[in-house]
Amino acid sequence: MHVARLSLTDYRNYETADVELGPGATVLVGRNGQGKTNLVEAIGYLATLGSHRVSGDQALIKADAEAAIIRAVLAHGERRVLVELQLNRQGANKAQLNRGVVKPREIPRYAHSVLFAPEDLAIVRGEPSVRRRLLDELLVQRSPRLAGVMSDYERVLKQRNSLLKSARARGLAASALPTLDIWDERLVALGSEIIDERLALVAELAEPLAAAYRGIVDADHAPGLRPVLSIDGADAEDVGDADGGGLDTRSALLDQREGGTPDATSARFAAALARLRPKELERGVTLAGPHRDDVLLLLNGLPAKGYASHGESWSFALALRLASAELLRQDSSTGDPVLVLDDVFAELDRLRREKLAAAIGDYEQVLVTAAVLEDVPAPLAARIVRIHGGRIVDDELEASEASEASFDANGAAHV
């Protein structure tokens, strides 16, 4: 699959934008702050219904507008699909597929992409929620129906937490909350499916992760993934600080689960809720479930968070994205996902730039953003789109003139 055309209206700093794209590699080049990332962010939004930079949609809508619109023509062979998303400042977002109204969560069925950006360093160094999001976005792209399961789980979790908070405020005992058992059943049913899907995905990622890391680094640092499950006693929100001090606790919990608890996930989940109910009533929050799980990232048997260097962390995060793209291309009926590299090459030395370019050269469509064109290996610079001030400019001369005009205006205003 590739994006044949992308149009934006009132999205970020674009009043309007319309750019034709094609198979192969395209570099979006321009100075920082001109709107390169906004274009690829919009493509990523179609695949994940979220931004890789902000948690909500409001920042995506131009300041003086009530809605932003993303339109894209997606091509797979001779087939063309028009997808449209309207992000509203007030009310629910809207979507269309070939001009027919659909639910927004239907769009990721048709738009597959994998985006790597500097913010992805948080996959290795950040909070568990970042790693959960990585897994969940990939799961939804591979199996869109899981978006509904995750949405239902969040709704049930919110209701259960509301009940727990109310009981804490009123000083009620567990015996006075008969409806809690009903919410527990629903939470276990939905949450167990999410946990099992994540576990299967972690196992599938192992081989392509190792291959991608070797391809980037040209060394075998034995990258690995180990699930950390709250239903088995681990609490990703409380265990394991930035220097890796929680490794022993996490490993013990993992070994305990892997060594002798053959029970189904749902049975372990239900048992965890029963065991934790006194603490939950005391704290007014649900303490077990996929919303409190994590994935421990390992290099040479040590947690990458805390032990990996900046370069190793960067390479690990990039390898995870490339592994995700590999899984999508293996099982997708629409072909390769669109591979997006946002300001990646500036962080790599010449050898790693060349190795990365070789690793991704056979993807159907690769979109690269760069402030300096010389940072991008020649094989990926076959087509260049220049961007300045929220506009797609026709050629290098126009971009240079626009840049000089902007500098003169800023200088005059400053004086």
UniProtKB/TrEMBL annotation:
The RecF protein is involved in DNA metabolism; it is required for DNA replication and normal SOS inducibility. RecF binds preferentially to single-stranded, linear DNA. It also seems to bind ATP. HAMAP family: RecF. ATP binds at G30, R31, N32, G33, Q34, G35, K36, T37. One of its GO terms (cellular component) is cytoplasm. The gene is recF. Residues 3-370 form the RecF/RecN/SMC N-terminal domain. InterPro entries: DNA-binding_RecF, DNA-binding_RecF_CS, P-loop_NTPase, RecF/RecN/SMC_N, RecF_2. It comes from the Bacteria. It is found in: Cytoplasm. Keywords: ATP-binding, Cytoplasm, DNA damage, DNA repair, DNA replication, DNA-binding, Nucleotide-binding, SOS response. GO terms for biological process: DNA replication; DNA synthesis involved in DNA repair; double-strand break repair; SOS response. This is DNA replication and repair protein RecF. Belongs to the RecF family. NCBIfam families: recf. GO terms for molecular function: ATP binding; single-stranded DNA binding.
